[in-house]
Design brief:
Length: about 260
């Protein structure tokens, strides 16, 4: 697929999406939000995609919403923001509910919607010099991009309140300590490490990964018995799948499983 504001390749089961507005700090305008949504739909519906890697060109992962784009809307700012968030949120929801794991490689600064997007990753690698800030209220705006859903679950309500109300910039070390990111990687190794991880995940049991994602999305709102019923249904479904049967047979015969994502 061809996009104006991002790059996307699919190779050996890995869809690699690269935010590509480096001259604008990869800030989100409507075009980028639309491209991200369409890339997410491709990842969700293409059976060849078994892992997704999101990274960014330039010195910054994403500066958040494009305030220049917002300024240019003039009297249409309100409907423009409604459209922008609706499209962006469709992309984020699709990425969150697809079976393939989403790996995010954060370089430089992730601010505003960039930090929101980072929080949606299943596994998040960050360069050692990376930094994170919510930034919304500094511009008189409110958070979007799913941050009010993901951040309290990932780092807790108190820390989320602090970041959203004070816009304090946190380092990669603090982000790791809080659980916002999975691992810190030397800046020069970030993309290579993320690609290696995506390649490994693309060889895994894709449907089982999807069950993990679905279970965790529901886990903080369901009663215990409901969640266990969902677990029962998930493991039963995987037991009936090709990968589930392959995994059991491989364990029994002391060999490495060969998963096909089915």
């Amino acid at each position: 697929m061809t996009f104006d504001t991002l790059e996307m390749t699919i190779e050996n089961g890995v869809a690699h999406i690269v935010l590509n507005r480096p001259d604008n700090a990869n800030s989100l305008n409507l075009a980028l939000a639309q491209d991200y949504m369409n890339a997410a739909i491709e990842c969700d519906t293409n059976p060849d995609v078994r892992a997704v890697l999101l990274s960014a060109n330039g010195k910054m992962f994403c500066a958040g919403g494009d305030l220049g784009y917002m300024k240019d809307q003039g009297d249409r700012l309100v409907p423009a923001l409604k459209e922008l968030t609706a499209v962006l949120h469709a992309g984020i929801a699709t990425m969150s509910r697809m079976e393939a794991p989403l790996i995010i490689a954060v370089n430089g600064v992730a601010a505003g919607a960039g930090m929101s997007m980072a929080a949606t990753g299943d596994i998040v690698l960050a360069g050692e010099s990376s930094r994170f800030t919510m930034a919304y209220t500094a511009a008189g705006l409110a958070p979007d991009g799913g941050s009010s859903y993901f951040l309290p679950r990932v780092i807790g309500v108190r820390r989320t309140q602090e970041l959203m109300l004070t816009n304090r910039m946190i380092s990669a070390d603090e982000a790791l300590d809080w659980g916002l990111i999975t691992r810190i990687v030397p800046d020069e190794d970030l993309l290579d490490e993320a690609k290696k991880l995506a390649a490994i995940m693309a060889q895994g049991p894709t449907r089982a990964f999807g069950q993990v994602k679905h279970l965790l999305l529901e886990s903080l709102t369901n009663p215990l018995e409901t969640q266990m019923e969902l677990e029962s249904r998930a493991i039963t479904a995987m037991g009936a799948s090709e990968d589930g049967q392959e995994g059991i047979d491989a364990f029994h015969n002391k060999r490495k499983p060969e998963f096909k994502g089915r």
